[in-house]
Amino acid sequence: MVDGTVNVGDLLRDGDPVAREGGLSADHVDAMRQAVIAAALDRRATTWWPGPLFVAATVAATLVAGVALGRLLPARDRTTSMLARRASVGTSAARGNVGEDVKTQLQFATPGGTRIIWVFDPDFNP
Amino acid sequence: MTLMTGEVVVWSPAADVRPADPAERLAALFDVHHRRLYGLARRMSGSADAARDLVQETYLRAAQAVASIPDDPAREQAWLVRVMVNVCRDGWRRGAVRRRLDPVHASETLPRAASDQETVLVARTTVWRALGRLAPRRRAIVILYELEGTAIGDIAAMLRVSPVTVRWHLSLGRRELARAVMADG
Questions:
Q1: The pLDDT of residue B81
Q2: How far is A52 from chain B (nearest CA, A)?
Q3: Which CATH number fits domain B109-185: 1.10.10.10, 1.20.272.10, 1.10.443.10, 3.30.110.170?
Q4: Using an 8 Å Cβ cutoff, are A17 and B43 in contact?
């Protein structure tokens, strides 16, 4: 402080703890270095296993089981189960014999009891 | 006549290969930057213990984000300094609550000095104590400029703020420190 003015920089430099104490001791440097590397190794160990690999294995096993099950089921069963899923709406299809005048129709029965019959026109050409 | 023969030797420095292993990378970062970081940490903290904790916490945070640390040595140092300032800010926010609850400690002043020598000593202690009360970013800017001689532009790049912001923090920081010294002297 000179004549009421303060040179903050000088005061800071005069009381600088780094200049007074010096840097880290070798022991502290070693201890800190080991702690930091241990943290990095620990993090690597926890991120590698089991999280991502376990999730990937579970997803793969589920996919394989799903595909295998799908192939084992007969096609008709699959159609039936699909149709049964439509909320209590019955469907049926009737076809004539091959070589005859083929008429295809689709019948619905609504929950209210209304019966709807769609007859498909084989000559229809939009 | 002497005929000198020789061969052209092309020397090029070894490619700057960064270790791919995170632990090796972190070890390399520690070896290169720990002195500089400790110096800054010691000036930012009130004790050597606190400074060591600060450096260690900085590297532990680096361990969590090794992949995001830039490869260039200057940029990796700036990255570490930014992390350190952020660690300080976290501690500062926690300390702000304690300071509000403990007004006696916050308004602590040094005893009046008798001689000129004591006045200088008190002023020196006061300015460092006042420095410790500055917000971490402002404190870091004052330290980097006043004690480490870092240019304004470099500080701005390091802390990712504009040079105007650095000057503003520097000006307010100096004013706060001078006011603390004047009040104590």
A1: 94
A2: 17
A3: 1.10.10.10
A4: yes
